[in-house]
Automatic annotation (TrEMBL):
Secretion signal, residue range per the UniProt entry: none
PANTHER family: POLYMERASE-RELATED, RNA-BINDING PROTEIN KHPB N-TERMINAL DOMAIN-CONTAINING PROTEIN
InterPro entries: FapA (IPR005646), FapA_b_solenoid (IPR046865), FapA_N (IPR046866)
Top-level lineage group: Bacteria
Domain (Flagellar Assembly Protein A N-terminal region) ranges: 8-180, 198-367
Protein name: Flagellar Assembly Protein A N-terminal region domain-containing protein
Pfam families to which the protein is assigned, alphabetical: FapA (PF03961), FapA_N (PF20250)
Length: 653
């Protein structure tokens, strides 16, 4: 007849021997009778702290060929007892060794001290005569020396209070007594405190039940006790009785500490921001990050026709949101939705009462941003802009069906669509600019208050108040975006400066044979210009100071030298305090930190060694070539550093 196997587990500290009913790392043992169990313990040398009642239960199960229903502790060693003078603890800790995962995923053994649960007003230490340190004995009868051979003095720790006569230390909360060093290097003095059974998180939105196994002779609290503790703690909202029951069952069955959320607050619901619901089809906005994180690369719909008095859009007001409630029943204020900074110009009108935006006359629609709408006429130039047409200055939207030749200028209040190239020419728009070809030449420049969409650049410059989208390439160019800067995944940039007040997503950056590029996200273009100006000023001032000191001598009294040193110090202070994220006059309370933490630089191809990476006020230079990588700021400042560093992460988009 096949008998049910049992497993004998001996703790690593040799203080506990337990019979287990299920498989473990120990070798299975099959016993023919209950008497053979005692012989097994003798053979293993287990002679101290035997629990004869537990052994009798196990022997009965073996004789009846019944499996164990739960782990049985059959031997318990005697742990060493520290000596105390003055206050004496009202309990004796029982060590328990458990296995848990370490920081790198490895299994580590941790020793815990099991102590009974205490409640408010219950004594954890009483006055008594000094007691010497007593060594312990493990289940094999071996002596265990006391780790602190001398006598210790107990002082009040967290969640305990000492009586007026100094004769008793009592708990002020429900929890488990715990020892801690009173001060570093003072082994003769220990704090006796109480670790809370139920811990509220700092945001008051969760209550954690931190349950520990009960030492021999004591029981776990039942569900009614836990609910009573919640009442006493004032935790009245979002209780989870099922979670309490499961935590108690796990702790009882596994004999391991358990931490479980047993109460949840209700998070406030943020109000939705105001937005424009368009009554006409405006088409895609190239470069816009969609809800799934992908970038919209579709072409912009240019010159959308509208009639006089036609409804263009309706402003949907922000919603207030709804308040939440914490676990103590207190309301949690919600964040209302933000209003839309609506800008309606030229031949469009806005009615604040109805929220309607209508065309004042027939024309074409232009959207500089999601909150800026204008209507203007459309002007078509069917050839190149050259000596025949001269420079173009228009209050309308422009469609140029040729190229813009060198040294010519185009200036318009509406959108500009150029179907050819920009050749060393200057383009300026109060709206958006779309170039179907590219831009070449050292003096070629686009300045736009809205977005810019272009195929390629060579030696050109783009300054956009909105986003920039480059579809093919950028060589030896400079681009500054007031929002995001994106390119298609196959695009390549060499020896270029890409700066965005928002995020950057590009293809490949750099090469082995060209000057390194700069990628700067969460950086205000105007602040970066100020940064470069101050750096040049400091270099010039340093050179001037060195030249003057060489002329008059370093120790000579010179009014001119003093003025130079004062100017240099003023420039140095401005340089050190310069915030690249946002100008001082528009600086939020957190100096733009939350915005910088939300911005990323994503390179979907290669980014070559030597490329300078900036996010906000942090900077790094790549020492090696990387592929398909995402750069972002670390959430916390590393120990010993004065600012956040930039993390290199695998791009998962």
């Amino acid at each position: 007849m096949n008998r049910s196997p049992i497993f004998l587990h001996i703790s690593t500290d040799k203080l506990r021997a337990t019979l287990l009913p299920t498989a473990s790392t120990e070798e299975a043992v099959t016993l023919d009778s209950g008497a053979a169990l005692s012989q097994l313990l003798d053979d293993r040398g287990i002679v101290h702290g035997l629990d004869h009642q537990a052994l009798a239960r196990a022997a009965t199960c073996i004789d009846r060929d019944e499996p164990l229903t739960e782990p049985l502790l059959v031997a318990q060693g005697t742990p060493p007892t520290p000596g105390y003078r003055g206050l004496q603890p009202c309990f004796r800790p029982v060590p328990l060794t458990v296995e848990q995962a370490g920081e790198e995923g490895q299994t580590i053994r941790v020793q815990l001290l099991l102590v009974p649960l205490v409640g408010p007003g219950e004594a954890v230490a009483d006055a008594g005569p000094s007691s010497p340190a007593v060594p312990g004995k493990n289940i094999f009868g071996e002596k265990i020396p006391c780790p602190v051979p001398g006598e210790q003095t107990i002082v009040a720790g967290n969640n305990t209070v000492l009586s007026a006569d100094g004769q008793q230390l009592t708990a002020t909360v429900w929890g488990y007594p715990s020892f801690a060093a009173a001060r570093k290097g003072a082994a003769e003095q220990v704090k006796l405190g109480v670790d809370r059974l139920i811990q509220a998180t700092p945001d008051r939105m969760q209550a954690l039940l931190r349950l520990r196994p009960a030492p021999p002779g004591h029981d776990l609290p039942d569900q009614a006790t836990v609910l009573r503790v919640l009442d006493e703690e004032g935790i009245v909202y979002g209780r989870l009785p099922q979670a309490i029951s499961q935590c108690l069952e796990l702790c009882r069955g596994q004999q391991r500490p358990q931490t479980t959320v047993i109460a949840l607050g209700l998070l406030p619901v943020k109000g939705s921001d105001a937005w424009l619901r368009f009554a006409i089809e405006v088409g895609p906005l190239p470069g816009k990050v969609m809800g799934n994180g992908e970038i919209d690369y579709r072409e912009r719909n240019m010159f959308i026709g509208v009639n006089k008095d036609q409804l263009i859009a309706v402003r949907v007001p922000p919603s207030p949101g709804s308040p939440g409630r914490d676990i103590f029943g207190a309301p949690v204020a919600q964040t209302p939705g933000k209003d839309l900074a609506l800008k309606v110009t030229d031949d469009a009108s806005f009615d604040p009462e109805s929220g309607e935006i209508r065309a004042s006359r027939a024309g074409v629609l232009s959207m500089v941003s999601e909150g800026s709408v204008k209507v203007c006429s459309r002007q078509i130039i069917s050839r190149d802009v050259d000596f025949t047409t001269g420079n173009i200055v228009s209050r309308d939207a422009l469609e140029i069906r040729g190229s813009v030749r060198p040294k010519f200028r185009v200036n318009a209040l509406g959108d500009i669509l150029i179907r050819g190239n920009i050749e060393k020419a200057q383009i300026r728009s109060d709206s958006n600019v779309v170039v179907k070809a590219g831009m070449v030449g050292d003096h070629a420049v686009i300045r736009s208050r809205g977005d810019v969409d272009i195929q390629f650049l060579e030696n050109g410059r783009i300054f956009a108040g909105g986003s920039i989208l480059v579809r093919r390439s950028g060589y030896y160019c400079r681009m500054h975006a007031g929002a995001n800067l994106h390119s298609e995944p196959a695009a390549r940039f060499i020896a270029s400066q890409l700066v965005a007040a928002g995020s950057i997503t590009v293809g490949t950056v750099g090469s082995d044979n060209a000057d390194p590029s700069l990628l700067a996200a969460a950086v205000s273009p105007e602040q970066l210009q100020r940064f470069f100006e101050l750096r040049r000023t400091l270099a010039a001032q340093t050179e001037a100071i060195a030249a003057l000191q060489q002329l008059v001598g370093p120790e000579a009294d010179s009014e001119e030298l003093e003025e130079l040193l004062a100017e240099h110090e003023e420039s140095r202070q401005q340089f050190a305090s310069l915030n690249l994220i946002v100008p001082k006059d528009r600086e939020p309370e957190d100096q733009g930190l939350s915005h910088a933490l939300a911005c990323t630089i994503v390179v979907r191809g290669k980014v070559f060694a030597g490329t300078e990476i900036r996010i906000g006020n942090s900077r790094t230079v790549l020492g090696a070539t990387l592929s398909n990588v995402c750069f972002r700021l670390r959430d916390q400042i590393p120990a010993g550093a004065d600012k956040r560093d930039i993390l290199f992460l695998a791009n998962k988009k």
